[in-house]
Amino acid sequence: MLDQIPPSTDLLSLSQRFQPSANPCPPLSSQKTPPLEIQYPPSPQSPPPLLWIWSFHVGDYGTLLKRFCRTEQQCYLRLMTDTLRPFVPAYHGVVQRDKQDYNMMDNLLTHFHTPAIMDCKMGSRTYLEEELHIARERPQPRNDMYEKMVAMDPEAPTVHERAQQAVLKTRYMQWRETLSSTTTLGFRHCSIANEECHTNFKRTKSREQVMEALDKFVESSTHIVWGYLRQLKQLRQVLEASDFFRTHEVVGSSLLFVHDWTGRTGVWMIDFGKTVALPPHLTLDHRTPWVEGNREDGYLRGLDNLIDILANMLPLT
User: Which domain holds residue 109?
Assistant: First the structure.
């Protein structure tokens, strides 16, 4: 059980009483962002909404506690003073529970009733250039990644990989991106949870497949589509003017979509464990195709395609 925070306690002041322990965040090369796992519908024994994610805890008074990562902490501190602040969870600093440090932020589901939730991983790649460099410098064939590859496509491994029963991390990461809409559209569904659909979409690749998944998520509601479309267009406008966005490589970050039966919708940027600042001389437009060395991530290309797909789901007027 998490300690109870008295209602009168200022969350920011509370978080500043705790300092993160030494070396609290693993190197970027070893960080793994697990898929979103959502209990749906909410448990009747718990105050809705109930959200349990690996490395997360639902905190008190509308907060969410996420296992501490210094990279993500630094991003949130910057974002709290950037024009993107309305599009990310409000950040309240670091707290400690049972000797474990957590980043504390707003629980984005607090004001929704039995919400439908979708996680879209944005960008044309989900690995940092740094990860490629490290994997090449210290190549280590991985049995676990070979097993994942075979589970998704038994024909994918080469003859040499079959003999070793292992693949290099660089090979696996780049192969994995070709299976979904990450490379074709610049985003992919990670998970959807609502009454119509509760699954992941590792093999959802074509524009038609993506549109079908989105239609199931919104349950063919034009009102919900309009709500998301308005918010995504606002987000795009702010992203194009954001100092934070142009000076960071945004990899592995997601857009969290939430709506409920009242018609309320919300879209937020989440997951910044692989978002890293660029060298002072470099900026990104987030649309230029990625070539190793240019650091481009394809985030805005994915957002453009997502907006276009939603717009095409609306009836012609």
Answer: 49-124+186-313
